[in-house]
Amino acid sequence: MNVTNVTNDIYQLSVNVEDILFEGLWEIPNGVSLNSYIIKGEKTAIVDGVCGWDGVPESLFALLDKLNIAPESIEYLIINHMEPDHSGWIEDFKKINSNFKVVCSKKSAELLEAFYGHTENIIHVTDKDTLDLGKGHILKFVEIPNVHWPDTIATFDTLTGTLFSCDAFGSFGRATSSNYDDMLSKEEIDFYEKEAVRYYSNIVAAFSMPVKKAIQKCSDLPIKIVAPGHGIVWRKNPNKIIEDYSRYASYQKGPAQEEITIIWGSMYGMTEKAVQHAIDVLEKEKIKVHVHRVPETSWGTILASAWTSTGIILAMPTYEYKMFPPLAAVLEELGKKKVQNRKAFRFGSYGWSGGAQKELDEIISKYCMNWDFLEPVEFKGRPEPKDLELITEKLRTLVGEVRELTNE
Ligand code: FEO
To answer: Which PROSITE patterns match (predicted)?
Structure first.
């Protein structure tokens, strides 16, 4: 767990979480940081809390001690969003401070009661409210519902221009004591950008419309620092992560980047032969390609690639008159995350019968994905040279369509 100085009177407490599935579901190969912030005016507030996995609250209290802050002197606990990765430590905190006030939205208060039975000393805030901590730190609250739960607010310190944005503008990736964009190399920033795409696509993607609204709303604020609940703090170039999030939100309805994602599965290597051929063709076309086999690759990894790709190729055999099941499951998840308006192509093998197309059509329609598919190429058993030629032709068409859309 780290404690670092963000700016005047503001500190970050950060804990890394690794070797778990985030939300019990998403693989996090590079971990994730959970960030809390302390604002020390004449009164002290803590924004969000870090819970969990490394001896908190003991380690949290040790860090507060480093800052000469007695836990019982914290007057306000600001909960931007009630999901337990930010609020889960409140019960432990209550054991050593019985006098604090919770500052949160009305919806957060309802969830606070449902999750932890906490109903006392709660101050509901809306867009109209401010909180004066003294020494010039007047906090303003901004309702940004559905980024990521309906209860979410952001907190803005008007003195320093620091936006405590919670899940908005966050990323996966473990934190270090250099958890600030002005302390990182370009390679490290690139690393966090990839982790931001993974975080966005896995956690926030389904709420891309609310993300756009939140960005619009926050554009009225004189933001100098973006301090999210996960990932690095943006002090040198806060607009970068705001612009990145704006782009990620736009990828929902497409077009996204000049990239193609191949999601494929194979039972006995017949479809795999055609996939290898497709990879060779796309390499010659010099377009960026992500290749993911199912069920071996996690949903989170596939989602991150699909989110940034304008073209998607599904390659799988028919299985018992339907799609190869792990590919159907991934496609359903892409539908739920609203990966829409992609240029797409399907090919694959069948044995005794086809049938994959019917299920594919059902999923695309059920989630209103509106993918524009080229005519599929299906082959009985192994792909013959004529099948590979047809696949080549379709792939070239797909590349052309992706390039046309992304270069408009
Ligand atoms: Fe980081 Fe939606 O909680």
So the answer is: FLAVODOXIN_LIKE
